[in-house]
Design a protein that fits this description.
15 helices; alpha/beta; TIM Barrel; 46% helix; eight-stranded parallel beta barrel; 378 residues; two-stranded antiparallel ribbon
Length: 378
């Protein structure tokens, strides 16, 4: 395992971190505990969760797993998050988190999901930073961190606060362009950096042919082999980025833990030539892809299934109209007329972590649907 300094905290974290949002069977406590133990035995020492992952059950499973790590003498750091912004709300939440995870301190505590500067300013005005400082002084948290979906230059205002010791954001081999300003601020302030969605919310393993450039050679003939090769190459691409402290992988089972750890063996890591080739290929091919974070879910007053429609729009970008139509019909079992119900209220775009033009995309899907229907009728 590779370990890196987490900013100026003095802590060394495993470059592969355990993301607690994708347990294969959250109801099977023994299986979840065994996964945490197996990860720690493979060298992973950074374990990340949140109150909304599987409800309270996710943190409860972490608690059982962390107890077992202590019994085995396996080292770990735990990270979590809060949506709350007032001191009373934050304290209520962290008291429950500490109890569920059976720990005295959350090592890396994040102000969760900053999607726009206005909401950040409101949360700050509510006293979030002062509350976090007091929690740190009382040793209920170890380090003040932030989880952000801001892109481009917007993230500078957030990181220039000079209070954050770490930042968490989405980053992968195809959407790195939106994070250049973030990495400049990370270097400037010597902030620890954790990245999530390293596989694009499943987009990379689900489309191995499209991401074959990550491997730089021929893929295997069998689907699982092809997908595994691309996944491991995508992780190696991120490990080569020295500004990244830890890459959060949402593990479903023990096999995926082994695949991720095996992917970053020293003899497999990329050199600068490969990194540049990957960046050029990604920049040319994948601008504007929806990463499937699903923060738009529930935002639509018309109950339009926006995440599914945006997933289908990815197919339009990557492959063309036929694949968009097939994705909606055979994968999601959705009629294309769903997109035509949009009333253009803009709530989905307000919640979009990538600031995508969702209204325009829905209109495009609806137009393709109308054209396809007329062609079929003829």
């Amino acid at each position: 395992m590779i370990y890196r300094e987490y900013g100026r905290t003095g802590k060394k974290v495993s470059v592969i971190g355990f993301g607690g949002m994708r347990f294969e069977d959250i109801d099977n406590e023994q299986q979840c505990v065994e996964m945490l133990v197996h990860a720690a035995e493979r060298g992973i020492n950074y374990f990340d969760t949140a109150p909304a992952y599987f409800g309270v059950k996710g943190e409860t499973r972490f608690g059982a797993g962390l107890r077992q790590l202590r019994r085995c003498g396996l080292p770990y750091y735990v990270a979590s998050k809060t949506f709350e912004s007032t001191e009373s709300g934050i304290r209520r939440e962290i008291e429950q988190q500490l109890k569920r995870m059976d720990v005295e301190t959350i090592d890396f505590y994040h102000a969760w999901c900053i999607t726009d500067l206005q909401s950040w300013r409101e949360r700050k005005a509510n006293g979030l930073l002062d509350a976090f400082r007091r929690l740190r002084d009382q040793k209920l948290i170890g380090h003040i961190c932030v989880s952000s979906h801001l892109i481009g230059d917007d993230i500078r205002e957030l990181l220039d606060e000079r209070v954050f010791e770490g930042v968490l954001f989405g980053y992968s081999a195809y959407n790195f362009q939106a994070r250049e300003a973030a990495f400049a601020a990370i270097r400037r302030h010597k902030i620890g950096c954790a990245v999530m969605n390293p596989l694009g919310g499943g987009l990379i393993p689900q489309n191995p042919d499209l991401f074959a450039f990550l491997v730089g050679g021929e893929l295997g003939d069998e689907g699982p082999v092809r997908s595994r090769a691309v996944v491991q190459a995508a992780l190696r691409f991120l490990v080569a980025h020295q500004d990244i402290s830890v890459i959060l992988v949402g593990f479903e089972n023990r096999r995926q833990i082994d695949d991720a750890v095996d992917a970053i063996r020293g003899d497999r890591l990329h050199d600068s030539t490969v990194i540049q080739r990957v960046r050029q290929s990604a920049a040319a091919s994948f601008s504007g892809i929806c990463t499937g974070c699903r923060y738009c879910l529930g935002s639509c007053p018309e109950d339009i299934p926006i995440p599914q429609l945006m997933d289908a729009y990815n197919q339009l970008i990557l492959r063309g109209e036929k694949d968009l139509i097939n994705r909606l019909k055979y994968h999601w079992d959705l009629p294309m007329r769903e997109a035509a119900r949009c009333i253009e209220c803009g709530r989905c775009e307000e919640s979009c972590t990538q600031h995508l033009q969702i209204i325009e995309r829905l209109a495009a899907i609806a137009e393709i649907g109308d054209r396809h229907a007329h062609t079929t009728e003829k």
